[in-house]
Amino acid sequence: MSALSAEGLTARYPGQPTASPALADVCLHVESRERLLLLGPNGAGKSTFIRVFSGLMRPTQGEALVAGQPARIARGSVGVVSHATYLYDELTVLENLRLYAELYGVPRPEPRALDLLGQVGIPHLADMQVGRLSRGQQQRVTIARALLHEPEVLLLDEPETGLDQAAFGVLENVLWGGQYTVVLTTHNLARGLRLGTRAAVLAHGRIVHERRDLSDGHADELAHLVEDLARG
Asked: How far is residue 72 from each of residues 7, 150, 173, measured CA to CA in Å?
């Protein structure tokens, strides 16, 4: 059984034309501990793919499965980091993590949160209001939050936004640990190639290219393909 499976997956936003869905008949399987780099120009369907598999959006047709379960009921198996943090600015870092831990029934939430803050390099900021943090520090908090409930799958939608090199190293260490199945969208191909083990390219909601070898020799090929698609 694949860790994540799309079978004939079509997804459409309210009012979107039937002939031009955000995702159109996508078939894609990600095996356990694979790290899929999902590429494509703006509007290709990358963020929609993340929304469907995070349970925030239901497919119009087809299936979106996480470990064999519909994504909408498998949210406890999924952690999400996106370019928007969705943190509560008025709460402290620890309060944000504790709230999220309680929503997912994490046992001993405070020690777990403090441990993860250590892993992402900001244990000294536990009692700081999130609204007073830098963008990069906030993104470190969202990485810790995504890991709180020990998910099997990580969905990362442009997670490097706001991360400096040191903070990006934190993300690398998390992913290189090897215990997660990952889907990663990014506009930074160089960074994406450091994190992914395989690539798929979306255009107009469809998979148009897949690449299982992400050695240096294929970086330019992927970059040119995405650029060509962006130009139409």
From this structure: 15, 18, 29
pLDDT at residue 232 in the model: 64
Cα(30)–Cα(2) distance, integer angstroms: 6
CA distance 17 to 1: 34
* Distance of alpha carbon 120 from alpha carbon 18, whole angstroms: 43
Domain boundaries, the chain: 4-230
pLDDT confidence of residue 218 = 66
- Report CA Rg, the chain: 18
What is the Cα–Cα distance from 18 to 13, expressed in whole angstroms? 10
Structure tokens at 194: 């450091």
Please state which CATH number belongs to domain 4-230: 3.40.50.300
Q: What is the pLDDT of residue 26?
A: 97
- How confident is the chain (232 residues) per 10-residue block, as mean pLDDT? 95 92 97 94 94 95 96 94 93 97 93 95 97 94 95 93 83 85 90 89 94 72 74 68
Judged by DSSP in three states, 132 sits in helix
DSSP H helical ranges for 65-208: 93-103, 109-119, 135-147, 165-176, 189-195
Strand-pair partners of 35: 182
Confidence at residue 171, expressed as pLDDT on a 0 to 100 scale: 87
Q: What is the largest CA-CA distance in the chain?
A: 52
Record the pTM. 0.92
CB 198 within 8 A of CB 34: yes
In the sheet where 153-157 sits, what is the strand order? 78-82, 153-157, 181-185, 35-39, 198-203, 206-211
